[in-house]
Amino acid sequence: MSNSELKDKVVNWHQYRYPTIDNIPNEQSINAISDLCSNILLPIQNEFGEVSVTYGFTSHSLLKEIQKLNPSHIAPNLDQHASYEKNSRGKVICGRGGAACDIVVTGFESNMYEIAKWAADKLQLDRMYLYGNERPVHLSFGPENSRFIQIMNMRMDGRRFPGKRGTCKELSNLIGIADEL
Question: In whole angstroms, what is the distance from residue 48 CA to residue 139 CA?
Fold first, then answer.
């Protein structure tokens, strides 16, 4: 799959859930999405196989719809899904810049920590959020290149909350897996 096809996945991820919402990125966001695909998604795809985007680019109009239906599971001012998009007051939604998406790799749906470990070791990612070994991995590429990892835990009521955090080189310790993965 080409970089262009991956960009389409990142932008059009929403179509089956929110088919009537336009999700059109501005030029700066298009460039950031392209960088995300070139530097993160394409290398993962080349190493492991087909990448599916479960949550990708989120324009202001799509964000408003998501906030109406499911506001408790998103953090648009932090997560980089909005890339360089602006809200109705003309302010950038997420000041971190860059772009992000949540992915699953075909054949690794029950072992996404293997994908996370490889990405942490090999890629210049900005942020990674882990929701569990059998859940999508959130990856971003941005100007900070912080290599930050956040483990997200879930309460009994289904709400997520931050757990352990660290850097890419600490991933194995954060999720309690052997370095051999």
Answer: 16
Return the H-helix or E-strand segment holding 152.
Answer: strand 148-154
Residue 155 CA to residue 96 CA, distance in Å, equals: 27
Q: Which residues pair with 149 in a beta bridge?
A: 128, 166
Residue 49 backbone class (left: φ over 0; alpha: ψ -120 to 50; beta: rest): left
**Cβ density class 108-121: b for 16+ within 10 Å, e for less:** beeebbebbbbbbe
Task: Give residue-wise pLDDT tens across range 10-36.
Answer: 999 999 899 999 999 999 999 999 999
Q: How far apart are CA 6 and CA 1, in angstroms?
A: 7
What size, in residues, is the chain? 181
CB 169 within 8 Å of CB 149: no
What DSSP assignment string belongs to 66-132?
A: HHHH-GGG--TTTS-TTTT-B-TTS-BS-TT-SEEEEEEETT-TT-HHHHHHHHHHH---SEEEE--
The C-alpha atoms of residue 29 and residue 13 are separated, in whole angstroms, by 15
Ramachandran angles phi, psi of 138, nearest 5°: -90, 125
Please tell me whether the overall predicted TM-score, pTM, comes out greater than 0.85 for this model. Answer: yes
DSSP code of residue 158: S
Query: What amino acid occupies position 165?
Result: R
Distance CA(138)–CA(70), nearest Å, equals: 18
